[in-house]
Amino acid sequence: MHEWALAQSIIYSAIEYQKKNNLKEITEFTVKMGELQQIDKEILEFALKEIAQFKKMTKIKINIKTEKAILKCRACGHEWNLSNPVSKLGKYELESIHFIPDIAHVYLRCPKCKSPDFEIVKGRGVLIDSIK
Ligand SMILES: [Zn+2]
Is-contact 80 111, C-beta < 8 A? Predict the structure, then answer.
């Protein structure tokens, strides 16, 4: 599962950050996970904790936040998010989008001008949001 590889790179970047900033210890960090990212949050959390233990970061508190997806129309500049009722997606479509973000273009249209040409501004990728 790529959650483990991801967790490992998150922990390594946290350690890099710690070294760069001469921090004695990292006690808490927050990971922001895009809504459209195909990641199992529970597996990721578990993997992060396991790897942190292995790296002797025993007192660490790990938070995982989900970032809402925001889409922006390339034709008219309108921005909207997936919970917007205008996009009225079925459960099946939403699930497909979760697994393959690019499929969003097949199902979604700009709620304003109906253009299928839009970009995903937020909601993809995983990043470290804050480190304490
Ligand atoms: Zn539009």
Answer: yes
- What is the Å distance from ligand 1's center to 38 Cα? 26
- How far does residue 34's CA lie from ligand 1's centre (Å)? 22
pTM of structure = 0.71
Provide the angle, in degrees to the nearest 10, between the axes of the packed helices 41-54 and 2-20: 50
Give 80-105 pLDDT, tens digit per residue. Answer: 887 654 455 666 666 666 656 666 66
124 CA from centroid of ligand 1 (Å): 20
DSSP letter for each residue of 41-52: HHHHHHHHHHHH
The distance in angstroms from the start CA to the end CA of the chain is: 28
As residues whose CB is below 5 A from the ion ligand 1, the structure lists 73, 75-76, 78, 110, 112-113, 115
Ligand 1 centre to CA of 97 (Å) is 20
pLDDT digits (tens, 9 = 90+) for 113-126: 999 888 888 887 78
Higher pLDDT, 90 or 11: 11
Q: What is the 112 CA–ligand 1 centroid distance (Å)? A: 5
Q: Token digits for 118?
A: 């839009």
